[in-house]
Structures are given as structure tokens and as C-alpha cells.
Amino acid sequence: MAFELKQxxxxxxxxxxxxxxxxxxxxxQLSRLELVDVIRQEMEExxxxxxxxxxxxxxxxxxxxxxxxxxxxxxxxxxxxxGEGDGKEExxxxxxxxxxxxxxxxxxxxxTEGPTxxxxxxxxxxxxxxxxxxxHLSRISDPEKTVGEQVIGNIDSNGYLMASVEEIAELExxxxxFVESVLSKIQQFDxxxxxxRDLKECLLLQAAVLNAGPLVETIIRDHIKDLETKNYxxxxxxxxxxxxxxxxAVAMISGMDPKPGRIxxxxxxxxxxxxxxxxxxxxxxxxxxxxxxxxxxxxxxxYREILGGVNGAQKSEKCKEYIKERLHSATWLIxxxxxxxxxxxxxxxxxxxxxxxxxxxxxxxxxxMVLRDVAEDVEMHESTISRVTTNKYMHTPRGIFELxxxxxxxxxxxxxxxxxxxxxxxxxxxxxxxxxxxxxxxxSEIVDLLKASGISIARxxxxxxxxxxxxxxxxxxxxxxxxxxx
Length: 486
Description:
- This protein is an alpha+beta fold.
- It has three domains: about 20-55 and about 65-70 and about 85-105 and about 275-395, no CATH class; about 125-265, no CATH class; about 410-475, Homeodomain-like (Arc Repressor Mutant, subunit A), CATH 1.10.10.
- The protein has helices at about 20-30, 30-45, 65-70, 95-100, 125-135, 140-155, 165-170, 175-185, 200-210, 215-220, 225-230, 230-240, 245-255, 300-310, 315-355, 355-360, 370-380, 380-390, 420-435, 445-450, 460-470, 475, and strands spanning about 50, 275-280, 285-290, 295-300, 395, 400, 410, 420.
- The strands form three sheets. Strands 3-2-5-6 form a four-stranded mixed sheet, covered by helices on one side.
- Helix 20 crosses helix 21 (about 460-470).
- The chain is extended, with a radius of gyration of 33 Å.
């Protein structure tokens, strides 16, 4: 086989992911809080970026800058950032002042004296701190306190002991019976059920504190699985007691806490800050972007004077090159943020247009919609719409929804038209909510009820939607009463 060298001329196109384009794509999919963090980090790394306060904040109003005016004004066509040629030409300060004004909204605070941070900040008591406090107040010996500290150190956030007694005894060079005695003392601490090794022991400890009686303790000890499946008739036959007594015992057990340590959990609620506000004014819906807390960015006038040689400012070629590099990065960031805000506005506008019946009537009128519908409407790619709707929330007259909430698959009606899957889930939830609690509907019966209303759906789909809504099957939803159970 002979080898030879040849020259071929080939013309092709390819997309090059420039750093600027990568940054623009990254900003699109960031949540609002993540965007603020990125801006703060960029301001620390880029000396040309600075935050400015809005001027003319009279009567608690904020004067919109060029960026806000451009965002608030709907446009018929929205171009995606390509990363080609942006920020690489000779910098025009006049163009910057017109096109890339301050981004975001800020406000001026009144200078008033408030309480010091020491009088405001508080430390939440943890489960470990609370148990240690009780341990050191107990009248026990120093060796018992040492073992007790080891026991408390092995209790998880739910209040369960994660290490065995043998492991603790080996760590502290103590006898197993001695560790057992210390553990039994800690199990008397508050909250009831603490330091249990499993669910059964946790409930038994709480039953002892409540003086629940032998029947409750027997049911917990020997029939915990029957409680889970609500097999109360079997418990009645095995223990030879009345159904009323079993139901009373079940009611007491249901009031116990299977995770006694969670009241001291260190987890904090994460509150949702909407990216978009939608208000109904007359017959129209108005969109307002949430710019509160978003830093207003501009390029420092100090570096502008250095670059322009104002007032005799001298600059070396190396300094000039550095300032231009930082300048390109700053202008691209400002442009990317403005593009992000405009894109969120246009996508929200398109969602309201497609889902107008939902905003007017409710979830039953939610239309099936996919990313392609909005992408074609705003003339952008589906991947861009997917990034824009990720971790973004909309505050509407009907509540706060993630933008992705409005995108859902369709289910065909028997009449031929389509209905959104979220609307079907709401129908299933209402059917279960209004069912007879002593004789709940099975999944097959829910299928028949939906079919009667014109919705054809499979039983496994009903089961899937029910699990998505965290609704138990009919066998575990059934309520019991003495005159209802045979």
C-alpha cells in the first residue's frame, strides 16, 4: 500500500466557545442569589468595576438608568450573544455611557444609629449543646461524664445513636454494662426518645415518659409492622382486646415523634426570592423584573481618566494593556447581565401569553407547553430557554412558581384536545381530597373517575402522579373506626 501526501482545501463552520460566550451562558443559568455572588466576586477581581447608587431617589422612587429603560421596553426581536467581536474593538466612552449604564437597582440608606451587631446576632442552640448542658447538670461521676460525652458525640441530627455500645466501650476503655448504664441515663434526657438505637426503642422511650400503658408498649414492641400497614384487625385478634382500645393506642403512637432531634436541627429555611413579578392591571398582566439588591455596575471614572490621559495622567504600555483587558471584561459582564435581564423579561412575557388562561382561571386551565414553543416565540434556541428558566421564580397573583413549572407534557382527552399533566395531577389531588376516608379510592377507581370526566390515563400513570405528590396508596390512606371495621 503506497502512502502519499496531498493538500486539500476544505471550508467548514464551527462554533468556538470564547471565554466571553461561556460567561454569558453561565450567567443565564444562575439564580438571582448566585448572580449577586458572581458580581461581587467580579468586582473584587476587576478594579474597573464599581457599584454606584441611583441618583434622584426622591419619594422612595428609583430613577431607571439606560439598562432598566431598555429592559422594560419590549422588543420585537432579541438576539443571542455570540461572543464574536464584543468588547474587542477600541473602547468608546461615549458609547459606554449611552449603552452600558449602571446595571441593577440600589437605594440610599438613611444614616441612623442602630443597635450594635452584638445585640442582634444570636446563636441557635444545637442538639449536642442541649444534651451536653443536661449531662453536666446531672449528678454523675466523672467517668460517667466522659462516656456520656462520647455517647452524645455519636448522636445524629435526628436524635439516634449511630455507634454501638461495644464501639463506645472500646473507645473509652470501659465495660459494656457501664456504658449501657450511662446510655440509659442519657435516654432520660429531653427531648423524649433521644439516644435510641432504632425506631422501636425511640417510641418505647416516649411511651414510658407518657405513661402510655402496657397495650401501647406491646403494640410498639411486637406489631410495629402491622401499624405501618394498618392491619388493626390482626392486632385485635392477637392481643384479644377491643378495636376501640387499639385505635386509642394507635392515636397515641401517631402523636409521638419518630425523629426527636429534628427540633434542634441546624438546617435553615431557604426563602425564595422571585426574579420576576407579575401584576394584573385591568385586563393586562404587567411584568416587573426584581432588581432589588442587584448591584448597579459602572466602570470607574478614575481608570477612565488614566486611559484617556486626563489631567496629565501618565500610563505605560503595560498599564494601558492591563486596563484595556480589564475594560473588555467589565463591558462584557455588563452587557451579559443586561442581556440576561432582557431574556428573562421576554421569556416571562411569552409564558404569560401562552398561559393566559392559567393566570385568569387557575391550574385546571394550564396548557401543555414545551421549550420549543417559547424558543420559537422569542426566536432563540431551546437550550437558551432551558438555561433561562433554571432556578428562576415568578411571583404571580396565584402564587410563586418556578419558570419550569409552566412547561409540562400533554395528555390527550377523549374529545381529542390536550390537557396539561399538571392539571391532571390537580384533578387526582382533588379526587383523593374529597374521597371517603373510610373507603378511599384505589388507583383503578381514580382512572375510572378521570375517564368519566373525559381524561384517558393509565393506572400506572395515576400511581406515578400520586407518588410525585407524596400521596399514599389507598391501603395506607384508609381511616378506621370501631363501627366501620368488621
